[in-house]
Design goal:
The complex is a heterotrimer of chains A (about 850), B (about 425) and C (about 180).
Chain A lengths: L3 E6 L2 E6 L4 H8 L22 E4 L6 E2 L10 E3 L3 H16 L15 H9 L14 E2 L2 E2 L4 E2 L4 E3 L9 H10 L4 E4 L6 E4 L10 H7 L5 E3 L12 E6 L8 E7 L2 E7 L12 H5 L14 E4 L2 E4 L2 H19 L4 E4 L6 H15 L4 E2 L10 H11 L13 E5 L3 H4 L1 H12 L4 E6 L10 E5 L5 H13 L7 H4 L3 H12 L3 E5 L1 H4 L4 H15 L4 E4 L6 H6 L6 E2 L3 E2 L2 H11 L12 H9 L5 E5 L3 H4 L3 H10 L2 E6 L4 H4 L3 E4 L8 E4 L4 E5 L12 H11 L9 H11 L16 E2 L29 E6 L13 H6 L4 E4 L1 H6 L7 E5 L4 E8 L7 E5 L19 E6 L1
Parallel strand pairs in A: 1-5, 18-19, 18-27, 20-21, 20-23, 21-22, 23-24, 27-28, 28-29, 33-37, 34-36
Antiparallel strand pairs in A: 1-2, 3-4, 3-5, 6-7, 8-9, 9-12, 10-11, 13-14, 14-15, 16-17, 16-29, 25-26, 30-31, 31-32, 33-38, 34-37, 35-36, 35-38
Chain B lengths: L16 H6 L5 H8 L2 H11 L11 H6 L10 E6 L8 H8 L1 H14 L4 E6 L4 H17 L14 E6 L9 H9 L22 E5 H13 L1 H6 L8 E8 L5 E6 L2 E2 H8 L9 E5 L8 E2 L6 E2 L1 H6 L8 E6 L4 H15 L5 H18 L7 H12 L6 H16 L1 H8 L14
Parallel strand pairs in B: 1-2, 1-4, 2-3, 5-11
Antiparallel strand pairs in B: 5-6, 7-10, 8-9, 8-11
Helix pairs in contact in B: 2-6, 2-9, 3-6, 5-6, 6-9, 13-14, 13-16, 14-15, 14-16, 15-16
Chain C lengths: L1 H22 L23 E3 L14 H5 L5 E7 L5 E9 L8 H5 L5 E3 L14 E2 L1 H19 L2 H4 L8 H6 L10
Antiparallel strand pairs in C: 1-4, 2-3, 3-5
Classes of the chains: A alpha/beta (about 850), B alpha/beta (about 425), C alpha+beta (about 180).
Amino acid sequence: MADQVTLTIEGREVTVPKGSTILDAATRLGIVIPTFCWDPRLRSIAACRMCLVEVEKSPKLVTACAAPAMDGMVVKVFSDKAVNGRKAVMEFQLVNHPLDCPTCDKGGECELQNHSFSHGPGQKRTSEPRNRVIFDGKYVFDEIPIGPVIWYNSNRCIKCYKCTRLVKEIAGDADLGAFNRGYKTILHRHKNVPFKSEFSGNTVQYCPVGALVADSFRFKERTWMLEQTPSVCHLCGDGCNTALWHQGQKLFRIYARWNNHVEDGLICDRGRFGGLYADDERRLQHPQIRKEGKLVEVSWNEAIRYVADMLENIMDKHGGESIGFIGNEMLSNEEAYLFNRFARQVIGTNNLDFRFEDRHLPSKELNFHLLSIMSDRVPYIDFKKFDNILFVGADSEVRHPVLTLWVKRAIYSGASRTYAAYHRKTDYNLHPAESIEYFPQGEYNFLLCLYKALKGDDIKDITSSAGVRAEDVEKWAEDFKNGKTLIFAGEDVYNNPRGTENIQLIEAIRDLLGQESKVNILFDGANYIGNILCGATPGILPFGVDNIYDNRKALADSWGAEKLSDSEGMNTAEMLNAAAEGKLKALFILGADPVGFYPGRGIAEKAMKKAEFKVVCETFLTETGKSADVVLPLAAFPEYEGTLISTEGRLQSFQKAYETAYTSAEGWRIMLRIMQKLGFEEDYNGPEDIWNEIGDNSEIFSNISHKGVSFRGLLIDMKFDKKRETDISGFEAVEAPKPPPEYPLILTYGTSVYQKRHLTHYAADMEKIEPGARIYMNTKNANSIDIHDNDTVRVSSGKGSLTLKLTTDQRVRPGTVFIPTNFIEAEFNTLLDSKADLTFVKVEKL
Amino acid sequence: MEKILFKHIDTPDQNKIETYMANGGYTALPKALKEYKPEELVEMVKKSGLRGRGGAGFPAGVKWSFLPKGTDRPVYLIVNADESEPGTFKDRQLLEYDPHQTLEGTIISAYAINCHDAFIYFRGEFAYAAKVMERCIEEATEKGFIGKNILDSGYDLNVHIFRGGGAYICGEETSLMESIEGWRALSRQKPPFPAGEGLWRCPTIINNVETLSNVPHIVNKGAEWFASIGTEKSTGTKIYCLSGHVNRPGNYELEMGVNLKELIYEYGGGILDDRPLKAVIPGGSSTPVLKADEIDVKMDFESLAAKGTMLGSAGVIVMHDGTCMVSALHRLIHFYEHESCGKCTPCREGTNWMQKILTRMIRGEGKPEDVDLLFDIASNVIGNTVCPLGDAAAMPVMSFVEKFRDEFDNICNGGKPKGTLKFPFK
Amino acid sequence: MLEIIKTVIKAIPIGLATTFKNIFRKPTTLQYPDVMPDLSPRFRGLHYLARYPDGTERCVCCGLCAAACPANCIYMEPMENEKGERKARIYIINEIRCIFCGYCEEACPEEAIFLGREFEFCKYNIPDFIYDKEMLLGVFDKIEKDRRVREGHKFIRNARFDFRSPVHAMKHPDYKREKTE
């Protein structure tokens, strides 16, 4: 019992681990001690003094949040002295707090209101007017905007320093600080620098009073009028648990739900403010059919009948193989399973895929590799057990903000060091991270260098092909040998012309480093693994079964189908090519926008033009939807339920907040109705029925009920224990990319931290945070051609050109430019050549 | 009685190393390094009974022995030269006129606690003292008293100077450490105490300038000699900073336990204009006040504690009968309101509230119930704050109200304030 | 049979006694609408939204009245006005659903909503009973106008009083019990 202490609180004994505070011990007993500045994720500073308790033999009252529990301590929480102490503190808090609860948006969930009700003196003894904050030489009576989406009212602030500490200690940004002294203290952004941390929204959620208010919720609705529905954020693969606050069919705000295994109560601004797009009025409201070249609103019955008839026609004429299915990586497991049944059983084709934002899509073999690696993955909470954390080909802060928080936590606690290899510097603003920048698509060469360096080979002659320095790689290799290493393989590793080789190299590196080292794969989509496991790729049947004859037969038997298609099937890239060549006759597109986001706009547009019949199910009218024959309004995520598997491999379910808005319908319902028109005999009442079927048929998901995964999620066991065989003996470095003289720069593209495809554009806040697309260029390159910040430039490649505003950025590798993909108006993919691996561009000043 | 610290304070150029060495300086350092082990030095300081001169009076040797044994983390020594208590001005004189004495004490103490980086934290306003000390460190480095392998003993020490921004709160040890670390000077919650987890979360010892200045003399003359001076529990001499309505204000180095009456009337030359005495604050502005009939008291830690006040930093502030206690308190509270760091609620809001009430009182707008309210606020602040600043603000309020209640009542009931002091604020 | 007759004979004078007792009394029936009823001072009639003396509405759309309303007849949506203050964009009271309990009046922290003395607001169409913000402010304006005319601007001259509520008016020394005649 050396590491346990026993103390008495209010006459009850409790045993807690050494190092716990009195507050922890009291919480264990269910005794509530009020706090303002305490937060389990932050270091206790005992600033608010609200948690004063009496400890026997201590002359003063003690702050429960900071005082360590000692053996034999006798704590009194409700003695007169303690109660009066807290009453005094509460009175001090209220001396200068304005009485604007009716207009304050925190009203109803305000900790100050609650504590003053239960612990306050109930009467005021001040007769002076309350202090008003003076800032910039002016009185600030009302809220002032301190960031694009945050309003600040310093009069309401009780100086708990939670916001500055959240931003500094957890997110690692230095956006907020405290100014002035004594009663004049204000917590504010630094002068002339907007509060623009990508975790800024959390300060609003955890502000105990209404000092920080989100623009999207300011003066909108009282909190007690709202309902909460547990959900899961679907805007990246991290799987943050969220709570949707809504009233009727209106979504007001998205808060973190605080699953301390996943997001730990901290979600990024993309999920918090970007998710509000579901509420936008620009949504598709009715099914539309193209009649005489125009999209005309029709009824659902007519639309479904029309789609079914047309698909039947094409099946009769050209066979099921001539129909392609493109989904998206946000499909829930249930939707993905039905999607796969629709394509494989009802239509009889293997042409289905859920990925459309990359051209070099993982093959069947590579997918099996990914699943096998993911079977031996590391959950978020275990990151701190590793000495070295290596990111390869991942802009993790942008694509996985919350996963990166866990990495930051590991760094800040002193447990780990970080190494980031990418084609530009990532946003590790305050991190002691070492970084290596290789050529775009130089992952293969870099990994080969690292592998050889680890083996002790000479790498001097191959580092130039990766564009890195030999001594850097050798130093890293030396570091990795001394300690446990966790490797994160990012999207650019497997969505790569040499994806299979890359993954094999990573597996080889892991094996070289020994048993203790692990690999995690980063998936950008909300349900990437789930989509693979539920059969939404051509090569893999549901539940990770290889698409070979015997397995197909067994599946057909279990479904009661006659026969499944024997073809290889096509992935999205192949489907679009085939459609452009006229081989595919029809496309069923579920929530995807290949024209807007497929790298190679030309081929996607051509495919849409050439295919005879195109069905697009979308929430908003996309570029793809504009050229479709039938557009069906898809429900937004608060309007349906399902399960997702995050990049951590955690199965989580999200709930339906309210009925579908307008006449939109859930993805599974649309598919089911069309399938039933095409002769599908089964019926489902909802995703739960589909989930039960999935559970009955699969080993992985068996015995997991829909409700069983409701609140905390479940790390699933993928049962791909067998390591795939890797043979990397013949791997040689490939040549470094050489831009032609007329197009001297290499184009790189990726998501921006605030955006998810076109969806987040419909959230009003996102426009304020990131008003438009820009092109990012290294300062050196820009200076050499005499371009400066905020100049308008024309970027042109052999395929097309774009006019954008330029931002000079030190993080971009010299010789490359970076364009964020998620802007509708930017149309980045007009620049891309659908054949060549890399695109070379030139930049001219306008 | 022979002066210890102020023995050579009036010697010209005492702040130059040649003069200091000619007057017997830097003799203790070689002795300490060669003849004593660090543990023996700690034991010696413990035996001498040297108590901290910064205010709390914690025995220095005991504090040093709290350092964790066998830690692999570096140990730091910080010299607290952030002397900002109203009524206290002893360190300034020591640092400006005899800085080598302090420096020698710092080096010996650093050796005793096995520290290799010592910091001298200067108050922002001590620009001249910091400049002098900078020169002194250069001189000492040239002579080989600081740096690598000091006097061939194999012991290394770097002494760093750190100048604060001029906040009273930086005199509090944890805020001082935050300030050195580069953050806003907000005091930390104790425990953990600095000896366990201090500067950059490493074990740290913080001592006052005067405390460390005594160390060379203890090493030179022995612990028994030091213990023989002063009273039984408060040993050595103390520099008393006499100010206020006395004829000869200034620093007086006297034995511990000198009578306050003697200090005021004999050394201080009596009250200004021979007026009757009204009140004395015995240990810097934060200590409770003594009435005129209470001043027959020994000036040491125990005797003053028995009177319900504190020796503090021995900044004796004398007030004659022309002083309005309400406006004197108002001035004091204004200081604490201005210097409150803003971290913890009772101090931040309480000082401001008390200041508002006192402002109202001296404007003649006070209400009869305000006196009780003032006392109640002060008793709510005391003991509920992170650092002693809140207590420092509340103690004078409580003692002023207790001992001079009639004046407060008089003002609140529409009476005219006594005394000749002008009200500084409107 | 005889007993029945006895009872009847006994009962007739008792009944008539009541009749004769009341025959000379003043009739309680009011000849409404020719004669207006005398309303109790705490009578709760049609709602109104009060204004500040400078004419801006008092309501800040805090939602407490809607939360207090047992009949769920209040609906509101806030907005930010040009001064940056929170005001109501939509404020609706469904008067046909209202039970005139006065909880909204009690809940209001800004002393903005009151139940006035107006009870004659019959309509031909039920939708007309849905009073929006402008209508509710209009009720207040009408009460103000009437009172100014009647009281000869007596209260206006007294700067300490604004026309927030009848309760305030009652505290005024010049207050006379209002009679709707």
